[in-house]
Amino acid sequence: LEDIPTIRKLYEDSVLAAPPQDRIRYKPNDSLLDRISLYQGDITQLKVDAIVNAANKSLLGGGGVDGAIHRAAGPHLLDECRTLNGCNTGESKITRGYNLPARHVIHTVGPVYSPPEVEEKARQLASCYRTSLEVAVENEIRHIAFPSISTGVYGYPIEDATHIALGTVRQFIESERASKLERSIFVVWSDKDREVYERLIPEYFPPV
Ligand code: AR6
Known about the structure:
Residues 23-205 form the Macro domain. Helices cover 42% and strands 15% of the residues.
């Protein structure tokens, strides 16, 4: 985790870069900022208690981040997934991490984005984040890393999805039951997604 700065650290770096009159605006005093990170790169490389997999209902593997996680974890992950009888959209199930540096994988199934049912899709996407965090807390996980669920093959617009990701995680980590959850890491793959997260994080985790 030393390689993954908290958002507070990111803000502090930006304080150094900011002109003096702007520094006060960036002064962080919100402890929630110590509980999230933004990380750009391959989620399968992270040595955390759990990484979240953007899976499909079968839980039997696929492309995108799901394919990368199964490749890195090795075939025993698929063996355990076969025992789970799939997973409904918006729900989450946990397995071991096998050959991954992460100890566990929390498999969640995001919605396939398709207008006009956008409110239903938004509820399902929020449920992915919430149920993943619930499963994490039940399993005494302290560090959890999320990919940007549904925004690849499943076509969810990145801006809308990021509002849901940040809002749902913020709401959860403010609740009493999340007290042992130390850090939630948002993992982005592309520069575009990183830009969206960097822009929206201050709305949900204000640096004031
Ligand atoms: N590390 C972090 N993020 C990644 C990685 C990686 N190694 N690889 C891709 N991403 P997607 P979905 C990003 O398509 O939209 C699978 O076939 C990617 O750039 O993996 O929920 C499943 O089996 C994007 O930002 O997931 C399902 O059938 C994000 O992860 C379906 O795809 C999610 O993209 C699920 O589609």
